[in-house]
Specification:
This is XYLB kinase. One of its GO terms (biological process) is xylulose metabolic process. 36% of the residues lie in helices and 12% in strands. It contains three helices and three strands, in the order βαβααβ.
Length: 83
């Protein structure tokens, strides 16, 4: 089974519940945020590290295993996918 999509929102807009709700409804996926300052920079740093170790087949999950745990911010509005 394919894992369900989830979105990790970072940056200033990640504090705006209305924007997060639109994002969740459009992609029909739950949206998570991280309670870390400069979380967009943190995400970029993890992706850069992952790029450096990619030739050794290190999964992204191993690179971010010590990252702060994301928290659920919003879920899709029931019926939004119909629109």
């Amino acid at each position: 089974a394919v894992p369900r999509t989830r979105i990790l929102a970072t940056g200033g807009a990640s504090h705006n519940k209305k924007i997060l709700q639109v994002l969740s409804d459009v992609f029909n996926a739950p949206v998570f945020t991280i309670d870390t300052a400069n979380s967009a920079c943190l995400g970029s740093a993890y992706r850069a590290i992952h790029g450096l170790v990619a030739e050794r087949n290190v999964p992204l999950a191993d690179v971010v295993k010590l990252a702060p745990e994301p928290r659920l911010a919003v879920t899709p509005t029931p019926g939004a996918e119909e629109v």
